[in-house]
Amino acid sequence: MASPSIKGPGEATAPTGQDVSLLRIGIIAARWNGAIVRQLVNGVLQELAVQQVPEFFIDVEYVPGSFELPYAAKRLAARDFYDVIIAVGVLIKGDTMHFEYIADAVSQGLMRVQLDATTPVVFGVLTVLNEAQAWDRAGGAPVGPDQLQDSDRVGDGRNHGVDWARAAVELALLDKKERSESRWGARAKDRYLEK
Known about the structure:
Blueprint: E1 25-30, H1 34-50, E2 58-63, H2 69-78, E3 84-92, H3 98-117, E4 121-128, H4 131-137, H5 160-184, H6 186-194
Parallel strand pairs: 1-2, 1-3, 3-4
Helix pairs in contact: 1-5, 2-3
């Protein structure tokens, strides 16, 4: 029997049975490392379909690279239309400090957007040491898994876009529930229902 993985988001804590048919999801994706990013975005879209989020409430926009993701997320959040934003990018470490600067800026920027705009932003940015690791986390390279070295195979070969989509639905539903309850106020809601 295989031992359960400790990685990944685990079981969703969002209220079950909630209607996802009106969830509006904005996806922003980097064109840099485009083949890997597109495979991750496909994983997001496939899982959103499984979750029964209508395709016409899902928008996908592309930006040049991961560094531009926070700006694009801020613009989407400012529209006050989306229930959640998923930022998708791939950063692969090179020989210089550039990777560290970009990874830190993107992480901080996306966190700032979600805190300032109060729109959940899912961090779908892979930060990996090499291209093989990125492909492994995108569900496998198109050339086949036999092209990956065992030392590169630190992930489990699943598309992490699936996890990001699940997290997005969970956060959007929790946010909708919280907004609904705070609009009513717990006491006012109880009084109204007693009548």
